[in-house]
Amino acid sequence: MTTGVIKNIGWLVNIREQYSLLKGAALAGLPVLANAWLRIREGRILEWGPMNTLLVHDNEQVWDAQGGAILPGWCDSHTHIVFAATREEEFVDKIKGLSYAGIAAKGGGILNSARRLQSTSENDLFNMAWERLQQLMHLGTTAIEIKSGYGLTVADELKMLRVIRRLKDTAPIPVKATFLGAHAFPEEYRSNHEAYVGLIISEMIPAIAKEQLADYIDAFCEEGFFSAEQTERICRAGMQYGMLPKIHANQLHLSGGVQTGVKLGAISVDHLETMDRPAIETLAASDTIGTLLPTAAFFLRMAFQPARDLISAGCAIALASDYNPGSSPSGNMNLVVAMSCIQMKMLPEEAINAATLNGAYAMQLQNETGSITAGKLANLILTHPIPSIAYIPYSFGTNLVKKVMVRGTWL
Ligand code: NIG
Ligand code: FE
């Protein structure tokens, strides 16, 4: 049933007749209606109001929220959910004290994931990723971006992107695809990085564009990985085919990735664990979104992203999971929201906006999802009854998600 009305909503969260990218102080404004109803028509949001104004139409389907909150589903704008194998051995090695270099020497890291993916069939990769995606939907994620980047050969990057294409065709939620051939230098290019950059630009990008497999272009702009200059060349090559940049920037070092992203008009620069004043001010003066990935910082035991500095400078902030086997083996956006409040001192209202409306902007899906707005998809989270909005991040680790609706249908 994709048409009906939800009654007895304790809190209807993020209702907006008009919306825009939320920058700086605006991020804290979360419009909420207590004791509400919400009408869905043909899988889209139609109208809402306070409970004492509800008129149920003849033969209309009625759902009872029983005092739970309704939120727009989470918009996870940065994931790597197509992978062949988990990497818990590295996790244990790190607990025992092995360094990043030590793990790389044992054949770990991104290249480990690439080897495993190269020897896994497209079908098996699809089945594993589809399983993960369904789990994420049940946790409230109803729009997602997925990256390639564990292929690292022309054939295997195409294979990964075809898996993402199949996820797009299969999943009931919006899916965006990002080409991340510039994730790490393969072993055989260890002493000739330029040759791999050349392969990305002259072979991978045209082949991907021919099959229209990618919406966005990404590069891991980081010391020991791709320089700001290489990132710029790769992104410009993608942009010639209409792929806008979304860049891994400033995770481990001041890589220049933020400035490069802003210069290119990137949709987003993501990670941002390592920021200085010039990077923050450059981002604040732009329309590029800073996407923070707190569970990656948590899992790698790094300092969290300076969310307060970014917000007070006037930046637009989104939150995403970075779900991947190496640095964030969780795609639970409820945890991302809680962690951003607990560890980065984001207000509950800021965190919810960053994980819904601004996350939608970070995938150019703001006209489809991210807020309770007439005409947007009825992609919604119904929570168990909660005393307040702040209770959502406060009660971290408790699953408050009772049900998830996608295009007007409960999963
Ligand atoms: O976003 N930073 C680069 N890439 C991933 C992690 C990759 C991996 O270890 O597999 C990230 O954190
Ligand atoms: Fe990532």
TrEMBL record:
Q: Where does Fe(3+) bind?
A: 78, 80, 248, 322
Q: Which residues bind Zn(2+)?
A: 78, 80, 248, 322
Its EC number is 3.5.2.7
Q: Which residues bind 4-imidazolone-5-propanoate?
A: 87, 150, 183, 251, 327
Determine the domain of life of the protein's source.
Bacteria
How are cofactors bound according to the entry's free-text note?
Answer: Binds 1 zinc or iron ion per subunit.
Work out whether the entry's keyword set contains Nucleotidyltransferase: no
Task: Show the GO MF annotations.
Answer: imidazolonepropionase activity; iron ion binding; zinc ion binding
Keyword annotations for this protein, in alphabetical order, are: Cytoplasm, Histidine metabolism, Hydrolase, Iron, Metal-binding, Zinc
Kindly state which reaction or reactions the protein catalyses.
Answer: 4-imidazolone-5-propanoate + H2O = N-formimidoyl-L-glutamate
Q: Does the keyword Transmembrane helix apply?
A: no
Query: InterPro entries this protein is in?
Result: Amidohydro-rel (IPR006680), HutI (IPR005920), Metal-dep_hydrolase_composite (IPR011059), Metal_Hydrolase (IPR032466)
| A single GO BP | L-histidine catabolic process to glutamate and formate
Amidohydrolase-related domain location, by residue? 173-410
Task: List locations, semicolon-separated.
Answer: Cytoplasm
Which protein family is named in the record?
Belongs to the metallo-dependent hydrolases superfamily. HutI family.
Q: What does this protein do?
A: Catalyzes the hydrolytic cleavage of the carbon-nitrogen bond in imidazolone-5-propanoate to yield N-formimidoyl-L-glutamate. It is the third step in the universal histidine degradation pathway.
The protein's name is: Imidazolonepropionase
| Organism encoding this protein | Filimonas effusa
